[in-house]
Amino acid sequence: MARLSRPRRSALQALGCTLVGWGALSRADQPTYTVAVVPQFPAADIHRDWVPLLERLGKVVGASFKLQIHAGIPRFESDVLAGGPDFVYLNPYHQVMAARAQGYVPLVRERKPLTGILVVRRDDPIRSVQELAGKEVAFPAPNAFGASLWMRALLAEREKINISPVYVQTHSNVYRQVIRGKSAAGGGVNHTLEQEREEVRADLRVLLETPGAAPHPFSAHPRVPAAVQKAVADALMGLLADAPGQALLKGVEMPNLVRADYGRDYQPLEAYRLDKYVVLAKAP
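^ that's the sequence the OP posted. Answer follows.
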């Protein structure tokens, strides 16, 4: 290339940058973006599943993605509603709250609908939701959508029962709280129960399910340039093209990835009027 004229060298260099990948950024100018993940699982599990995906995403997009793990869902909510993370994986009603507060835009989501579930011990004699009246029920956090927010609304509005909620930080903690007999029942979602070990699933029985809803999206703060948002969405969709990419998506509960749209997927949740059940934590 040293023998080529300067204009031809410049043209070929520009072409080479284009061929690195759609939307890829120059390595010399790689920015760093923060990514927050709702802490449904223990921190070690989140790190194990998300870091490899973010590393591959960074190679394709030409940027660095730094994982942020919060000590519980309330702290996660406070950070998101304050606009802290550049990208965020959050529950459906968190998406509604984040869109209102900061304008976060959903990019991609899992295709399979999310349903909230209320579980009891498999050997528990409870057969009706009505039998939970006055009993302690475990939830991850007040605003965990299918596992808590929507479930508590259904118990109060449709089933007309009062329960005593206790919040135990993660879905994994909920399931173990119920198995150990510390709570009569617990709220989770279909995706997280499916991720549990077989012996955990074998000890639990689903007593109630919510209607289905569009599941957790991977969303971007509006300060992230539109070109970067598109490059990230394209790169994530591109993981469907090969087995290693598919394995990465399965690890973060998005094996059947599709493009997300706020108006189609999440705006309808505003009609459920769940705001009366939202509990906003004080900023840490």
